[in-house]
Design goal:
The protein is built from 4 helices and 3 strands, in the order βααββαα. The chain is mainly α. The chain has a domain at 1-60: Arc Repressor Mutant, subunit A (Orthogonal Bundle). The protein has a 3-stranded antiparallel sheet with strand order 1-3-2. The longest helix is centred in the last third of the chain and has 20 residues, at 80-99.
């Protein structure tokens, strides 16, 4: 459902903006603090010209060079899981060394009669 021609140059509600940007309404509500908007009581309204300008400011660079300056990105190196596994093994080894060793005596297992 495209925005109505009568509001093309006027104010849009969240549903109109969702249709225009092809973004879920729930996602837009989460972005409202960033997106230029107007509040009328509890109602939120948007203007097409301001949305277009905001989108241009947040345009990603061509060629996958990044989304925007300062945006947090995960770099895929293929060794992410190995690093996590190594950190987990190190934490387990440290924990084992601190909680149980022969100097502490018997384990906390309860043996049968």
């Amino acid at each position: 459902m495209e925005p109505c021609a009568a509001i093309e140059n006027g104010y849009w509600d969240i549903r109109d903006l969702s249709n225009y940007l092809k973004v879920k309404i729930k996602t837009l509500y989460a972005l409202v603090p960033e997106i230029p908007h107007y509040r009328v009581g509890k109602l939120i309204r948007f203007r097409k010209q301001e949305i277009d300008s905001w989108m241009e400011q947040h345009r990603g660079r061509v060629g996958g060079q990044g989304v925007r300056s300062g945006a947090w990105r995960v770099r895929r190196t293929g060794k992410g899981h190995a690093d996590i596994d190594r950190m987990i093994r190190k934490a387990i080894d440290q924990n084992r060394g601190e909680t149980y060793n022969l100097a502490h005596g018997k384990s906390d297992r309860i043996e049968g009669p």
